[in-house]
Amino acid sequence: MSTLTTAPRVNSAGKNSGPLTVEELQATGLRDHWYPVLPSRLVKPGEMQKVTRLGKDWLVFRDAGGRVSVLADRCPHRNAPLSIGQHLGDRVRCQYHGVEVDPTGTVVKVPGMPGCALEGKQATLSLEVAEGAGAIFAWFPATPDSKAPELKLPDRLASDEHTHFLNYVEWKAPWRYYLDNVLDPMHGAFLHADSHSMYRGDTTARFRIRETDRGFFFEKTDQRGQNFDWVEYVEQNGLSYVDLEIPYGPDAGPGGPFGIVGIPTPITENVTAVFHWRTREVTGWEAEVWRFLYKTTLEEKHWEVLEQDRMMLENFAVDADQGEHLYQHDLGVARIRRMFQAAAREQAKRIAGEA
């Protein structure tokens, strides 16, 4: 079962040093999107943590009451990093000159010059934030007046009929490689052939793209219920994610197929924060049995599969998605690339027009 809480944030303060280009958007991620930033458990009440997301540094700040904020990691006075400052419960104090900034990005105190014009000004960029499914999400605006839609969690994470675990890793690979990997179900029959769940099924297949009102399915036409046979790409309310299922045998405990919801969040152009939610459709006592079985037996096996993906993608060259020789199995890869390239071009034009 999932709960979702939202915390509106001012996002009109702060500017980019220059309009983001198509190349920068493709390298560090589209704006006007919700992205998971960190697992909620990593920032407890009264704590703060520096992160890099979409190529910029941010301060994830949770006040004493538990409310979370994501601020640009720059003091509005001299751009000193707020992340090495002091947590004051409901604000952060810059270590350099003592300037205090609240969760909305408003300067509340300038000890060196009380009453100066900086006090009361929203001078630090503060992102709109929401929490759900064990993660902190932030809306990364394309322009100063971008407005975030309500965060809508993926179906498996919002449903009371599913239970899930959040898995968080960081990979030294571009974020687009993660999407290419998931939109390529055929790799399961080879890279993961010795895994506990993907050893069944043929090593040849035909695929098709099936359109939906929120994205598309990329699926095998001649096999179902044997391996990694399909993946859905979803984009709704500014959140993009992939959803897939892998069949499980009776020895994996109660519940139907094993589901994965995946979202890559760019850290830099060559490093990615990967969020996986591992799910099954179980409730009540069956959910408790599955959760116990997962933590004691299955989680280690799932890490082994994820490590196979990590090792492969981290060893790709940074230009490995150029000059390839794609074939029918790669329709999903080609489709997702075209979508993001078109979106980056459109967004770059809009940003340049409003910069």
TrEMBL record:
Signal peptide: none annotated. It holds the Pfam family VanA_C. Residues 1-20 are annotated as: Disordered. Gene3D superfamilies: Naphthalene 1,2-dioxygenase Alpha Subunit, Chain A, domain 1 (3.90.380.10), Rieske [2Fe-2S] iron-sulphur domain (2.102.10.10). Residues 34-138 form the Rieske domain. It comes from the Bacteria. SUPFAM superfamilies: Bet v1-like, ISP domain. The keyword Iron applies. The keyword Nuclease does not apply. One of its GO terms (molecular function) is monooxygenase activity. Keywords: 2Fe-2S, Iron, Iron-sulfur, Metal-binding, Oxidoreductase. Residues 1-19 have a biased composition (Polar residues). PANTHER family: 3-KETOSTEROID-9-ALPHA-MONOOXYGENASE, OXYGENASE COMPONENT (PTHR21266:SF60), IRON-SULFUR DOMAIN CONTAINING PROTEIN (PTHR21266). This is Rieske 2Fe-2S domain-containing protein. The lineage of its organism: Bacteria, Bacillati, Actinomycetota, Actinomycetes, Propionibacteriales.
